[in-house]
Amino acid sequence: MRDTFVRTIVEVAKNDKNVELITGDLGFGVLKPFWEQCPDQFTNAGIAEQNMTGVAAGMALEGKTVFTYSIGNFPTLRCLEQIRNDCAYHNANVKVVCVGGGFVYGSLGMSHQATEDIAILRSLPDVAVVCPSDLVETEEATKAIAKYPGTVYLRLGRGGEKRIHEKLDNFQIGKAIKIHDGQRVAIFSTGAIFEEIESAEAVLKEEGITPVVYTFPTVKPIDREVIEKIADEVDLIAACEEHNIIGGFGSAVAEVVAEKPHKATLLRVGLHDAYSVKVGNQYYLREQYGIDGKSIAKQILGRLGE
Q1: Whole-structure pTM over 0.90, yes or no?
Q2: Cα 243 from Cα 295, distance rounded (Å)
Q3: C-alpha span between 184 and 236 (Å, rounded)
């Protein structure tokens, strides 16, 4: 995802001189194509993410479309006041890019684990929250948010995520993407955890269950139409995320499902109101906290009583 984002933002910036990229003093090896090809549209703000966000807001209010770039919680939670007061309140065209959502930087401990960011950014008025699931969704999302008015949060994995789509012809902010049809169960996911959904599907199919599967590259605005439709068709919706279940993607789905009667009940799969006290790579931590493929399938089967 990270390399796809950089490749895409280079092309966007070459075609639009109003696009700017600001980094918080990292990612130079990855960002090299950008500062080589668009040197006048690149700024290193130093290890000063709050200042980076304030500068981005000022540039945006002068007519620029500004992408800020850092890892984990650094461009989001560290800069929350600046995002809220300087960017979102003024509807400034600042696109906050986090590389390393969830447990990507798990070996560096909870300070680098972005597991509350969706909930917090989603709570800010007029801030869109975009969490692509593979490199194709990342490319389309990057192009889309460059044109999307106002402040946007783009939450990425790091790299090596499995490709889901060959291409997407009609990507839209606020629209879920159907992977395939099924029955009884629907699995909704956001972000790079989709690779675990495929593993969960394999287990479920051994039990005779083929779930409906959707990715939600946009958490806010959420695709209410798809959620309501599927909630009337299946017995169970499992909303899966590499994030705290409180306030995150599952909560966004729950808000829609709870507003009117539906057939389906909801299972939220994610961290259960906890910080990770364990250290290890992304896959190890997913397993430890019950969001790997086998654990997701086990939770779904348990809810179905099978």
Answers
A1: yes
A2: 15
A3: 7
11 burial (CB, 10 Å; 0-12 / 13-18 / 19+) is middle
Tell me how far apart the alpha carbons of residues 178 and 165 are, in angstroms, rounded to a whole number: 11
Give φ, ψ of 64 to 5 degrees. -90, 160
- For residue 306, pLDDT over 70 is answered with no
Listing DSSP states for 276-298 in one string gives: ------HHHHHHHTT-SHHHHHH
Q: What average pLDDT score do residues 86-112 get?
A: 94
* Torsional class of 46: left (φ above 0), alpha (ψ -120 to 50), beta (otherwise): left
CA distance 130 to 222: 10
pLDDT at 26 over 80: yes
Residue 107 confidence class, pLDDT cut points 50, 70, 90: confident
Rounded CA separation 60/19 (Å):
9
Angle between the N-to-C axes of helices 28-37 and 2-15, in degrees from 0 to 180, rounded to the nearest 10: 10
CA distances from 12 to 18, 58, 199 (A): 10, 21, 35
Question: Using N-to-C axis directions, what is the helix angle for 135-147 and 2-15, rounded to 10°?
Answer: 30
Q: Cis omega (within 30 of 0) on the bond before 132? A: no
3-state SS class at 70: strand
Strand 185-189 with 212-215, pairing: parallel
pLDDT over 70 percentage in the chain: 100
Higher-confidence position of 166 and 82: 82
Say if residue 184's pLDDT is above 70. Answer: yes
- Using CA atoms, how far apart are residues 234 and 263, in angstroms rounded to an integer? 7
Parallel/antiparallel/unpaired status of strands 212-215 and 177-180: antiparallel
How far CA 7 is from CA of 38, 179, 196, 216, 300, in Å, comes to: 12, 25, 26, 23, 38
- List, as one string, the DSSP characters of 248-262: SHHHHHHHHHTTS--
Confidence tier at 196 by pLDDT (50, 70, 90): very high
